[in-house]
Amino acid sequence: MTTKDISDAKDADLRASMGALERAALAARMIAIQTDTAIIVHRDGKPVRIPAAQLRQEPAVAALLNSTVETVNSNCHA
After folding, report:
1. How far, in Å, CA of 63 to CA of 57, rounded?
2. What is the model's pTM?
3. Hey, how many other C-beta atoms are within 10 angstroms of the C-beta on 58?
4. Tens digit of pLDDT per residue, the chain (78 long)?
5. What 3-state DSSP class applies to 55?
């Protein structure tokens, strides 16, 4: 069985689905941080628990947290 890259799909919704999944994963991480709870992800065929403290250290999440804080601070000083 061969698998094709989803970005080559004919259906526009299907092509856009990977971006939607990535945004949903980031949103789940942000909610876990806000509620100080862990998330469960699937790695190497096994469920892996990632606590909120570890999520805060992930580069993509840290960048988003920093940009959110900067936005809030700039709105407060306006």
Report:
1. 10
2. 0.68
3. 15
4. 678 888 888 889 988 898 899 899 989 999 999 999 999 999 999 999 999 999 988 888 878 777 765 554 565 655
5. helix
